[in-house]
Amino acid sequence: MNAAFGAAGVAVGLAASVLGVVTLAIGLRRSDARLLRAGQRYVWLVLGGAVLATIAMQSALLGHDFSIRYVAENNSRGTPLLYTITGMWSALEGSILLWSLVLAGYLAVMARHFGDRVGDPLVGWATITGLVVAAFFFGLMAGPANPFRLVSGVTPFDGQGPNPLLQNHPLVAFHPPMLYLGYVGFTIPFAFAVAALVTGRLGEGWLVETRRWTLFAWGFLTAGIILGAWWSYEVLGWGGYWAWDPVENASFLPWLTATAYIHSVMVQERRGMLRVWNLSLLVATFALTILGTFLTRSGVLDSVHAFSESAIGPLLLAFFAVIVAVSIALIAWRGDRLRSPGSIDSPVSREGSFLANNVAFGAFAFVVLLGTVFPLIAEAVNGDRLSVGAPYFNRMTMPVGFTLLFLMAVAPALPWRKASGELLHRRLLWPAWAATLTVAACVLAGLRGFAPLLAFGLGAFAGAAALRQLALSARASRRQGSGAWRGLVGRANGGMVVHLGVVVIAVAFAASQAYGTDRQFRLEPGQTAHLSGHSLTYLGTSTTRLPNKTTTSARVRVDGRRVYRPALHQFPFATQAIGSPSVRVGALRDVYLTLVTAPEPGQTAAVIGVNIQPLVAWLWVGGGIMALGTALAAWPGRRRRPTEPASAPAVAVSPPEPDAPERPVAVGPHA
Amino acid sequence: MLPNDQWPWGPMRSKWSWAVMAVVLVVALAVGAQGRPGPPTDAERAHRIADRVRCPTCRGLSAADSDAPAAKAIREEVLRRVEAGETDGAILGYLVSRYDASILLNPEGDGVAGLVWALPAAAVVVAVGGLALAFRRWRARPDAAVSPADRALVEEALSSASGPRRRGER
């Protein structure tokens, strides 16, 4: 029953995507508004199909319908409710279903948002692009990644349950959906980029239309990555949160190019330049979400987070190749319209700093991509088996990170076009003093090491620069009588809040990398170990049996106060026990406890792992600040007139747009 | 925070301010980069070596971070050899001969493995060089001449914008 509904949902989604593409294509060819409207309506059918398939999957999971193979492999009668629901994204086929649902949702919101402009070829082509992507993912579900395939033979009485690591922490309910809202969200700006190329309307209109969509996708991706780091810290039990693992890199790569894009797009809006570059960044971001899915789902790379492998790898790789090839061909075809007459006067200017930002982010992305795929390349070239791991990434990205922190400090102070020495002096003097005094204070407090001290100094520099901008903006808006809080809203001000979050994360990252210690102690009950000024008293272990797992937990009293319980879980169908750490979270440092070895039968001594890292909690706080800043940046701000010199997109230098809509390029709250 | 235009000192003193700042910063970083006194202990050295080596049986973790039996074995072996007085290079060389080159998380050697270090450096040099060339070209290009007609167009746009149509105009 569930399988039939699910298959029907997938079929409806696939058929509606294909029919929508065909209808819209004919409608655009004939300029037939009626066909275009009809084509747009297929988006709702796609959404209906995705929702039907999702309901069928959830109903199968909740009803433990083990006749469906996916349910038998990712659910069991003993699985708790939360992990039964999240079972939908515990393996490949369900993840594709979640992807399709999110994509259908985005497309529906897009269709609604642009509902009064169905006759506009830009919207038509963007919808076609979105529906092609949807057709690909529904096609995967209809074929090789069918989540509703039935088990062969007898329906088992019980299933295997989700991967043990995916039923160990409630963050599984938040991290994957957030990440997918980010990944999939980039489909919309990508679709508009393709539409702009096809229609030849390469002015700044499409950028402005998709500005907020990009921002939302970026915010969700950021939140998803940070939640993922938090999750691995809470679940994986090695005391780290970022291992430069292929799956982590796969989510980080589109983030890097998207971050470069949301900065460099400001140069285009302001000066009409960098058109090819911005299009390339947007295409790269979308293509990297697909490449990342390929790298992590095809099993070509080993990863701690690789929860599924399957045969859809070649299809994803082919799709990636098609995206890249089509985009490059379109950009080459429109090359003549993409040239811009503008020029940048001085490297010491806002636009100059955005260019430097792009070089840094480009280098960052290149290092991460190269390091991730290099083992594959080396093996293909001459059969060498080699690894590229955390030490490589740390060493290569550290200078880039310092460059970015420095740019974050200097760039907000730089004016457009050209900066004078006097101006820089006035704007940078006290942030620079803040940086210097921070470094001096850290050294006086006994902190050592060049890299962390430089990171703290640059962090203070960038943080002070952002605070200065926010204070000026708040004061200006209070003087205008609209309340100081208004000074925190809007793209530039929200951006500064995001910068503050980045600074918090950078400082916490540097501190925890440089000043962490870890040790393992073999302790008898009642014995106390000491590490970095903390005392750890092992009290004993206890074992509990739950329907889905058997848990052995140790009781460890930290600093003579609260008792923490690191544990080992043995799941049925799993060979290795899964540890779950117990963390004493603190503003200054976390004490991270793991049960490395439970007592042998007949013995009482256990091995307890202790990992003490400073400032880790601030990573998550920084993530929260970034999310808040993104929301502030996307908040509908003061309406700017399109003709206002400071905000007008550079329409004057764009090529003639024969079929442009009648009204001027919208720069309103909905743009 | 002081208002931007009211620094209590003149331009002369502000130059001093930057100079003093530079001295303080350089001294602080120089002192801070000295590191902790004394050579690293054997355990610290062993940890640092294990950090550069892959755990052979796990996915994506170093031998220092993993609790897998194979990682523990590597840690014990490394510590034994550190205590026996072997150099870092000799210990890593032993591990490569015991497993293979893929045990190292930092790919080493010339040939293909060297590319992973050289390519990003080359890419940055090319990007920065390209940017410098672009700036030179931009600087050489004279600004487009502004005709009286252009000025009139701007005037008109500005005056109409501040006129009655300013609110809610689409």
Explain what this protein looks like in three dimensions.
The complex is a heterodimer of chains A (671) and B (170). Chain A contains 19 helices and ten strands. With 671 residues, chain A is of the alpha+beta class. In chain A, the strands form two sheets. In chain A, strands 2, 3, 4, 5, 6 and 7 form a six-stranded antiparallel beta sheet that branches. In chain A, strands 1-10-9-8 form a four-stranded antiparallel beta sheet, covered by helices on one side. In chain A, strand 3 (534-545) and strand 4 (550-558) form a beta hairpin. Chain A is globular. Chain A starts with a helix and ends in a 37-residue tail after the last helix. Mean pLDDT of chain A is 88; it is low at 641-671. With 170 residues, chain B is mostly helical. Chain B contains six helices and no strands. The interface between A and B is large, with 81 and 65 residues.
Helix content of chain B: 55-70%
Pair with the biggest interface: A-B, 81 and 65 residues
Shape of chain B: elongated
Query: Percentage of helical residues of chain A?
Result: 55-70%
What is the succession of H and E elements of chain A?
HHHHHHHHHHHHHHHHHHEEEEEEEEEEH
**Total number of strands of chain B:** 0
**What's the overall average pLDDT of chain A, rounded?**
88
Poorly predicted runs of 5 or more residues of chain A: 641-671
Determine the strand fraction of chain A and express it as a percent band.
5-15%
Separate helix tally of chain A = 19
Radius of gyration of chain A equals 27 Å
Strand content of chain B: under 5%
Low-confidence stretches of chain B: 1-7, 163-170
What oligomeric arrangement do these chains adopt?
heterodimer
SSE order of chain B, as H and E?
HHHHHH
Mean pLDDT of chain B: 79
Radius of gyration from the alpha-carbon trace of chain B, in angstroms: 31 Å
Assign an overall shape of chain A. Answer: globular
